[in-house]
Design goal:
This protein is an alpha/beta fold. It is built from 13 helices and 10 strands. Helix 2 crosses helix 10, helix 4 crosses helix 12 and helix 7 packs across helix 11. The N terminus is likely disordered.
Length: 323
């Protein structure tokens, strides 16, 4: 089949996947309402959730989904651990394991990022390309972010002297780096770094996963008591399947995913969404999307234990649910 015909057909299929809710969903009064907590604001990282809603993946399973936001995976893990008002949502594998070791009643249902997407990013002209290059430099940190725990892991894994790195508190944006108030920032690759690259700025990224921080990242977690309740367990299983549909689009057709996500959130710069979505697609697990394994969790727990980041020993079965 000629390439242009394949492109036309692919576009048509993508469009049909996002038909209006009324075309394939149950009536509103028949839908089960559920609110999913996301650990940050609406960005391509969470496209699987938003696209699943847009394409009717939740509604076809009898769910009416709303999204709430919090500031960081540690916050999300704690709030879902409390179980009220949120009992299911996104977090990070590192935050999930750390939370479980603290006694938070949470478990992972799916892992979307099998390794950390976190990077330390700097201005290219400053020639900071290795963790040790941070000595004598100023690093901006966002209070409450899981990246702070990942930084601790990076420092321990590379036997760095933290006292030689100047640290300061910053907002969760790149202004401090652009304005040269700091020499480096830390964030997910597809977030602030992608925004700067989309603007044409030259930055260098130090990937934490390349320097010893090997652990599960973006995942879906559930409160223990909610999972023990048959009704809410059934809802959670439907959410897993629906979100998988959304992230399948991202992984298989990042261009289509970016187009639809931009339509949902026109405030975001299209060039940023395009680049960010490609990055997300490359980071996703699978197939199947969302797969988590005993080996993956064992490696995550081992990494965190070796870096003394867990309050007490935990097992894989304490932190994850496998079908």
């Amino acid at each position: 089949m000629p390439f242009h015909r394949r492109s036309i057909i692919a576009a048509a299929l993508a469009a049909s996947a996002l038909l209006p809710f009324a075309a394939h969903a149950q009536s509103e009064d028949m839908l089960e309402k559920v609110e999913i907590l996301l650990d940050w604001r609406a960005l391509p990282t969470y496209a699987g959730f938003y696209l699943a809603r847009a394409m009717g993946a939740f509604e076809r399973r009898g769910l009416e989904v709303a999204f709430a936001e919090t500031q960081g995976a540690m916050s999300s893990a704690a709030m879902i651990g409390e179980g009220k008002p949120y009992w299911i949502g996104s977090s990070s594998g590192i935050a999930t394991a750390i939370g479980r070791a603290k006694g938070q009643p949470i478990k992972s249902l799916a892992v979307y990022y099998p390794k950390s997407p976190t990077v330390i990013f700097t201005r290219t002209e400053d020639r900071i390309a290795h963790p040790r290059d941070l000595y004598g430099k100023t690093l901006g940190l966002v209070p409450g972010s899981i990246t702070n725990e990942e930084l601790r892991a990076l420092i321990a894994a590379n036997k760095l002297d933290r006292s030689k790195i100047k640290e300061t508190t910053v907002e969760w944006n790149a202004y401090a780096l652009v304005d040269k108030k700091v020499d480096a920032l830390i964030d997910y690759d597809e977030m602030a770094p992608s925004e700067l690259i989309a603007e044409g700025r030259r930055i260098t990224m130090i990937r934490l996963s390349d320097f010893g921080v090997r652990a599960y990242s973006l995942n879906l977690i559930v409160n223990d008591a909610a999972w023990a309740d048959p009704a809410r367990r059934a809802i959670a299983e439907k959410i897993v399947d629906a979100v998988q549909e959304g992230y399948n689009m991202v992984r298989e057709r990042p261009g289509d995913a970016a187009t639809h996500f931009s339509n949902l959130f026109p405030r975001l710069a299209p060039r940023f969404v395009d680049r960010s979505m490609v990055t997300v697609s490359q980071q996703l697990s699978g197939p199947p999307t969302g797969i988590q394994t005993h080996a993956g969790w064992e490696a995550t727990i081992k990494t965190l234990e070796s870096l003394s980041l867990l309050a007490k020993p935990i097992t894989v079965d304490e932190v994850a649910i496998f079908n």
